[in-house]
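Quick one: co-fold with threonylcarbamoyladenylate.
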Amino acid sequence: MSQEFARAVELLQACELVAFPTETVYGLGADAANPEAVAKVFAAKGRPADHPLIVHLPGAAYLDRWASGIPDVAWELVEAFWPGPLTLILKRTPEVPYAVTGGQETIGVRVPAHPVALELLRTYAQAGGSRGGMCGIAAPSANRFGRISPTTAAHVRQELGDSVALVLDGGQCPVGIESTIIDLSRDGGLPPRLLRPGHISPEQIASVIGVLPALPEAGIGVEVPRVSGALEAHYAPQTPMRLVATEQLPAVIGEMHENDRRCGLLSRTRQALVLMSHSQRQLPDEPKGFARGLYAALRELDEQGNDLIVVENVPNDSAWAAVADRLRRAARGSAETDFHHL
Ligand code: TXA
Ligand code: MG
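Sure, here it is.
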């Protein structure tokens, strides 16, 4: 593998794209300090250029090259959760190109906790890193804009084909959904804002800094930063997808049968296991296991020629919040509205 890391670094330094595994999902990596390399990421994903990218760092020691005015609460979170699935939004330094921040004065940064990602970042830093020795790799999830994030190397190839020069294969991502994003970019970092729920919960954050981060409320005078993960329609399959409560499953699936429609079911409880859908994926009935398998299961159901993907809804409690968030956006982003016209 060490030759592969050397090759990956050469490619990054030559302004090419390299996909790599993180503990959350696979990222599509580029030299974060080079606007030309960053432009290739937007082109490959089909993503609007005003959506900022997360910059991945080899360690917390690199943070002050990218962020300025770093509040104490940020250092406390770094100490507690890095390397790990937590992205911090902070004020950028003047060296950070606007290409990577989507034109904003803030920057999203994290140190990933995957051995392949860390080895890549460290090899990169040892080789002098990126332009100006900044040593950051910009990496959004390695999917086409709005689609399901990849959790295996094969998913990345399906999504991006030849537009990525190299895909480092680290097997299946252990967390399976994207990092928690906390905005600390206001003076003193407080109050912290939760821009995207993830594996690290608001309660865990509060246990470190003593303040519970809240979802920003849209409204007059509240400026919500642009976060593509915050778009109402995102992480979506191409097949129409609907969230259905466990008790409603028999009726919905039965109606599909009567109308000769193919129905794929993503379930988690024993009750749902006995229902007759055309294809079924069962995930563990606990949030961490469910999150780990979620995107691969949606991809499979999406590829099986179903007319509708029915997802057994998850409990409405805080342990399931990150999964519920992704399911809601996936249902909105799917062609469910078209389904009504079938
Ligand atoms: O787990 C993850 O975070 C994965 C892996 C590859 O690290 N990355 C990921 O990247 O999910 P992406 O680009 O698909 O989603 C990152 C989110 C986007 O919604 C982006 O808008 C937001 O982070 N973001 C990045 N910088 C930001 C900033 N300065 N202000 C607000 N949001 C920001
Ligand atoms: Mg994404």
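If it helps, Residues 219-224, 338-342 have pLDDT under 50 and may be disordered.
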